[in-house]
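Sample entry (120 residues):
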Amino acid sequence: MRMLVLALPFALGCSRGAPDVDCASVGNGVRKFWTEKARTAETPEDRAEAEAMGKRSAERLERHCKADGWSADFIICARAAVQPEEAGCMKYLSREQSGKLMMDPVDQTPQTPGGLNVGG
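Predicted structure, serialized as tokens:
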């Protein structure tokens, strides 16, 4: 009992500085990228497409994060990345989680404003 009492404050103290890692933030990197693309778009059509792509991309990540129970490590990595796959974040997902994400393409169109094909 005495050991438990001593360990409890230590455990609580360690969690205070932990970053907020919830599924609502997993799409931050993607969202930021597409917000910038929309801001610098040359036409209203490109701006609208970039805004829509950002919304779809972030929603896709958030949906899978919640449904598939992604780890805090993946969330932290992905929320800072434009493409979690290329940023090395996939190592934090199980084969099943990764497969579900890859089987859910973010966009049906092959190109986006500026010719960048970013997404799923």
